[in-house]
Every structure is written in structure tokens, then in C-alpha cells.
Amino acid sequence: MQETPIPMTEEGFNAYKAKLQRLKTEERQKIALRIRQAKEFGDISDNAEYESAKSDQAFVEGEIIQLERLLQRAKIIDRNELTTDEVHLGSTVELRDEATKETYKVTLVGTTEADIEKRRISNESPIGAAIMSQKLNAVVNVKTPRGPAKYKIVNIETNI
């Protein structure tokens, strides 16, 4: 069964790759040291430090497996394929709220990289799904958690 590719910016891919490397090297070494030290205390059957280290080891190994799967499925968004004529994954879009006339700049990314504090929204979010494949000056209706909203696409950039 072919798994669905996960769209990702090169920056996001490299960040996940660095995290995986850190977990495989630094974190594994720290936990191995904690396990060795806990074993030195003697009986491991009633050793809280040993149990804690083994629990942390299981968590890190699970995270490593998850990251490896994510990176295997990653499809890096090619900057050269991005255009400013319509919204794509990787586009930075300036939206104007038609009710308040306030403008917002967001970058459309895959779900794994969404980070509202950095104004990186998922293509599967209500706004992301509404603006995907839309052209400059299009007005989109969005069902948001606060209720319906209308946004006009006032600018599209490709600077991911």
C-alpha cells in the first residue's frame, strides 16, 4: 500500500532531520547513561530511576520511528514550481478580512509544519483549504470557529 506523500518545505524537512539526528545521538546516549547509572544502584526490580529511564527510552524510540516515517513520506515543495498567479503549498498570501478590512499574511504549509505563531497555516485548515488554488483578488468564504468570514487575496508571494 502506497502511503500518501506529506508536503513539506525544505526548512521543515531539515528541522525534522536535525531533530531525528539529535534523538538518535545525544538523547539515546543520555538515556543509556541514565540506565547504566540506575543499574549500578543494584536491584532494578524496585528502582524508580531505572524505570524512569526505560520509560524515557521507549518514548524517544517511538519518536525516532515516527520521524523516520515522516521523513520517508516527505515531499519537499519545490520553490521553482511555485508561481504568484495562484495559491499553492508554500505560497505566502496576504488576506484582507472583508468585514474589518484588516490584512493578514500567512504561509500555506502541510499539516506537519503548521504553526500559528509563525503564521504558517495548514492547507487542511478552514482558511488554508479555502484559499488553496485561488487566484489573486479572489474572495473566499470561510467557515471559521468564530463563524463565517470573507477574505480577499490581495497578494501572493513565493518566498518559502
Question: Could you walk me through the main structural features you see in this protein, from its secondary elements to its overall organization?
Answer:
The chain is of the alpha/beta class and 160 residues long. It folds into two domains: 6-76, Orthogonal Bundle (Helix Hairpins); 79-157, Chitinase A, domain 3. Helices cover 39% and strands 24% of the residues. The chain has three helices and seven strands, in the order βααββββαββ. The chain has helices at 10-40, 48-73, 126-131, and strands spanning 6-8, 74-76, 92-97, 103-109, 120-122, 139-144, 147-157. The strands form two sheets. A five-stranded mixed β-sheet has the order 5-4-3-7-6. Strands 1-2 form a two-stranded parallel sheet. α1 (10-40) runs antiparallel to α2. The model has no long low-confidence stretch (mean pLDDT 91).
> What's the number of domains?
2
Which word captures the global form? Answer: elongated
- Span of the ends, CA to CA: 31 Å
Major pleated sheet: 5 strands, mixed
- Stated plainly, the CATH topology of the largest domain is called Chitinase A, domain 3
What is the mean predicted local confidence, pLDDT? 91
Radius of gyration: 22 Å
Helix content: 25-40%
User: What class would the helix/strand composition place it in?
Assistant: alpha/beta
Number of helices: 3
SSE order, one letter for each helix or strand: EHHEEEEHEE
Under CATH at level 1, the class of the largest domain stands as Alpha Beta
Outline the fold blueprint.
Layout: E1 6-8, H1 10-40, H2 48-73, E2 74-76, E3 92-97, E4 103-109, E5 120-122, H3 126-131, E6 139-144, E7 147-157
Parallel strand pairs: 1-2, 4-5
Antiparallel strand pairs: 3-4, 3-7, 6-7
